[in-house]
Amino acid sequence: MSQTPNSTLPAQLTEVIEEFAELEDRQKLELLLEFSRELPELPERYLNSYDQMEEVVECQSPLFLTLEYDDAAGTAAIFFAAPPEAPTTRGFAAILHEGLSGLRFEEILAVPEDLSERLGLSKAITPLRLRGMTAMLGRIKRNIRAHQAGSAPGQPG
């Protein structure tokens, strides 16, 4: 598999990728399930308010996300909502949360689209599920670009 070095990735995302790289396919699924249990709860302001969030319809399970921007610092906080009975989707969301939330806009926008390949999940997870992770990352980037342009989707503005 040809890919650019992980040194172009944010440190916390590189750590996650390295964790997955050390494992066999079956163990990768177990690690993904561990991540699913670590997805942070939504802040109270978003509980039962999915209308304030964006649905990622490419995911096989219901998944909602939203970003909050700190323009002074140039950073974005990312929040996800996914049901407990959707561990793969929750696992992907937890990886993106751990790897990207709180980073500078430029760092998030620089993350390569082949993130799921870098995690080595293509043999362990169906292509349809992998497409969901790619869609999550794409939505995050699109929202940041729209915010920078002054018209973030799903955000007042």
UniProtKB/TrEMBL annotation:
Alphabetical list of InterPro entries matching this protein? Fe-S_metab-assoc_dom
Domain Fe-S metabolism associated stretches: 17-142
| Name under which the protein is recorded | Cysteine desulfuration protein SufE
Q: Which Pfam families match?
A: SufE
> Domain of life, per the record?
Bacteria
Upper lineage: Bacteria, Bacillati, Actinomycetota, Actinomycetes, Micrococcales
The Swiss-Prot or TrEMBL record describes its family as follows:
Belongs to the SufE family.
